[in-house]
Write a structure and sequence with these properties.
2 domains; Ammonium transporter fold; about 475 residues; mainly alpha; two-stranded antiparallel ribbon
C-alpha cells in the first residue's frame, strides 16, 4: 500500500487506516511521563539530595545527559537498539530522523514459535501507532538509564569526562542490553522476560554506576563523612515525580492502552507502596526513627523491583515483591555494604547499586517465579511463559532470568571499565582538588542558593558590599577571602 493510500481524510485530518488514536495518545502520554521523571524529576532530586556545594553540578549532570541522549538516540542509537540485527546482541546503527521511517506503522520483533506442521505460531507485534511515537518512548527510557547511573558519580566526576561518558556508554552498553532483551536479540529469543527495564535500565545502570565509581574514585573524606541533603522537601518533590511518572514507565510497555497496561499500572503502585512501608518499618525497628530519605529509597526499590514483571504478575505477587524489595536491598545497603571491605572502598554516592542493581535483579528473578500464564499471553502471545510457582516449564523461566541477569552484569562491568580507561587517556575522570574542595562555585561559577556557607569561596566583591557591619555579621574581616 502506498503512503498516499494508507491515509484517509476525516475530522482529524489525514489519519492512517491502521492508526489507533487512543493507543497513540497513551503512548505519547506515557513517554512524556517517563521524560518528566528525568526532567525535572531527577534534576530536582539530584540537586536537592546532595550537599549544598554540589547542587548545581549534580542537577546539571542529569540535564546534560537528557539532552545528549536525545541527539545520539535519533542519530544512531535507536537503530542499534531496535533495528536490523548486526550481531545476536546488537543492532545496526541507523538514523531515526527521516519522515519515510517515522510516519510508518511501528513494528517490534516477537519470539517466533512454530507448530508441528512448520507454520509460524506467533505473529509479529505491530503497535497501532507511528514509528515516531516508538522512537520517542524508547528515547526517554535510554535517557533515564544514564541519569540513574550518574547517581553513583555525584560530587567528584569531571564534567568534561561525563560529557564523553554519556554518548560512549549509551552506544556500547545501553544499546546492547536493549537489543538483546527488547529488540529481538538472543536473550529475547531465548525467552528472558524484562517487561519494562528491570535489566535493561536498572540492573545495567546499577552495575555500571558501581564500576564507574570505582574508576573515578571516592569523594573527598569530608564529603563522605558528612553529605546531608540541602533540601529534603525538594527531594520529596523529585521522588514524587518519579513515583507517579512510573505510571507511564510500566503502563506504556504493552504498546497499547489495554488490559495489560492497566494491570501494570496497578501493580506498580502496589509494589512501591508496600516496599516504602517495609523499608520504613525496618528503619524504625533498627534505628528507632523513620527516615524520609529511607522512605524514598524504599519507594525506589519497589518501583524498580516490579518493573521486570509489572504486567505479568497478580496483585498478591506485587505485594510479595514489595516486601522483598523493601527488605533485601535494605539489608544489602545497611549491613552487607558496611561489612564488605570491597564495597566500602567504592563510593557509590546515592547507593545506586543497591536501589537499582540489587532491586532490578530481585525483580527479574521474582518475575521468573510469579509470572502468571494468562497475563503473559496478554503481553506477548508466546506459549509456555509462566513463573515457577505455576509449574510446567516455570522452573526453567527462573533459570533463564538468572542467566540473563548474568549477561547484563558482565557486559556492563567490562565495557564500562573500558570506557572509563579510554576517557582517562583523553581527560581526567575526577575534578581537580580545588574543584573538589569548593564545589559548584569553582566548577560552574554558579551557586544553588544565595547563601554563603559550605564549600564556597567568600568574596565580598561578589557576595555583598564592603560595609563593616555586614562583614562583622558574617564574622569575616572585610576584604578577606575564606575557604570553608
Amino acid at each position: 500500500m502506498s503512503v498516499a493510500r494508507a491515509y484517509q481524510g476525516n475530522r482529524s485530518g489525514a489519519v492512517a487506516e491502521w492508526l489507533n488514536e487512543g493507543d497513540n495518545a497513551w503512548q505519547m502520554i506515557s513517554a512524556t511521563l517517563v521524560g518528566l521523571q528525568s526532567v525535572p524529576g531527577l534534576v530536582i532530586l539530584y540537586g536537592s539530595i546532595v550537599k549544598k556545594k554540589w547542587a548545581v553540578n549534580s542537577a546539571f549532570m542529569a540535564l546534560y545527559a537528557f539532552a545528549a541522549v536525545w541527539i545520539c538516540w535519533v542519530t544512531w542509537a535507536y537503530g542499534m537498539s531496535f533495528g536490523d540485527k548486526l550481531l545476536p546482541f546488537w543492532g545496526k546503527a541507523r538514523p531515526a530522523l527521516g519522515q519515510k521511517l517515522l510516519i510508518q506503522q511501528a513494528a517490534l520483533p516477537a519470539t517466533t514459535h512454530y507448530r508441528r506442521d512448520g507454520t509460524e505460531e506467533t505473529p509479529m507485534i505491530t503497535p497501532f501507532y507511528p514509528m515516531a511515537s516508538m522512537v520517542y518512548f524508547q528515547c526517554v527510557f535510554a535517557a533515564i538509564t544514564v541519569i540513574l547511573l550518574a547517581g553513583s558519580l555525584l560530587g567528584r566526576m569531571s564534567i568534561k569526562a561525563w560529557m564523553l561518558f554519556v554518548p560512549l556508554w549509551l552506544t556500547f552498553c545501553y544499546t546492547v542490553g536493549a537489543f538483546s532483551l527488547w529488540g529481538g536479540g538472543f536473550l529475547f529469543q531465548w525467552g528472558v522476560i524484562d517487561y519494562s527495564g528491570g535489566y535493561v535500565i536498572h540492573l545495567s545502570s546499577g552495575v555500571a554506576g558501581l564500576t564507574a565509581a570505582y574508576w573515578v574514585g571516592p569523594r573527598t573524606p569530608s564529603d563522605r563523612e558528612r553529605f546531608p541533603p540541602n533540601n529534603v522537601l525538594l527531594v520529596l518533590v523529585g521522588a514524587g515525580m518519579l513515583w507517579m511518572g512510573w505510571t507511564g514507565f510500566n503502563g506504556g510497555d504493552p504498546y497499547a492502552a489495554n488490559i495489560d497496561s492497566s494491570m501494570a499500572v496497578l501493580n506498580t503502585h502496589i509494589c512501591a507502596a508496600t516496599s516504602l512501608l517495609m523499608w520504613t518499618t525496618l528503619d524504625v525497628a533498627f534505628f528507632k526513627k523513620p527516615s524520609v530519605i529511607g522512605a524514598v529509597q524504599g519507594m525506589m526499590t519497589g518501583l524498580v523491583c516490579i518493573t521486570p514483571g509489572a504486567g505479568l504478575v497478580q496483585g498478591w505477587a506485587a505485594m510479595v515483591m514489595g516486601i522483598l524489595s523493601g527488605s533485601i536491598p535494605w539489608y544489602t545497603m545497611m549491613v552487607v555494604h558496611r561489612r564488605w571491605a570491597f564495597l566500602q572502598k567504592i563510593d557509590d554516592t546515592l547507593a545506586v547499586f543497591h536501589t537499582h542493581a540489587v532491586a532490578g535483579f530481585l525483580g527479574g528473578a521474582s518475575t521468573g517465579l510469579f509470572a502468571e500464564p494468562v497475563l503473559c499471553s496478554l503481553f506477548l502471545p508466546v506459549t509456555g511463559s509462566r513463573g515457577g510457582v505455576y509449574g510446567g516449564v516455570g522452573g526453567v523461566q527462573f533459570l533463564k532470568q538468572v542467566v540473563g541477569a548474568g549477561f547484563v552484569v558482565a557486559w556492563n562491568a567490562v565495557v564500562t571499565t573500558l570506557i572509563c580507561v579510554a576517557i582517562r587517556v583523553v581527560t581526567p575522570l575526577r575534578m581537580s582538588e580545588e574543584q573538589l574542595k569548593i564545589g559548584d562555585d569553582e566548577v560552574h561559577g554558579e551557586e544553588a542558593y544565595a547563601l554563603w556557607g559550605d564549600g564556597e569561596r567568600f568574596d565580598v566583591t561578589r557576595h555583598g558590599s564592603n560595609s563593616e557591619s555586614e562583614s562583622q555579621q558574617l564574622h569575616v574581616p572585610t576584604g578577606v577571602t575564606q575557604n570553608v
